[in-house]
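Journal club side-thread
Mid-discussion, someone asked how the predicted structure for our own chain would compare to the paper's figures. Pasting it here so we can look after the session.
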Amino acid sequence: MTVHNLYIFDRNGSCLFYNEWNRKKQAGISKDEEFKLMYGMLFSIRSFVSKMSPLDMKEGFLSFQTSKYRLHYYETPSGLRFVMNTDLSVPNARDTLQHIYSNLYVEYIVKNPVCVLGQSLDSELFSSRLDSYIRSLPYYSPRAA
């Protein structure tokens, strides 16, 4: 069980934060291109899910999986998008993403007068607390394949 990486996007698709923990394979493109591809894919999947769902989905798109990883998604009312990639053994990381938003992002970014909302997150305190939190998760393993 492991966490591969985490993206935080604003409502306009700009990647405000990115970190890796156990990512074994790189995309082979620049990080900016990777961020654009990820956001575009999320935009398309959300649109597809909302149009094709036979039920009224209150929570909308939550996750999807491939044969190699699972992508977990959480969107805040203000339009921030939190995306975490894990291995397939992690069933649901929604609570984890909500915790990152409410207990880390809000506490160390929103309430920090030095941080400017809508710009990249350069807070060392946020980064270190996030890293500690991710490493404390029951499904985080530093030696995962």
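Post-session note: Residues 31-52 form the longest helix (22 residues).
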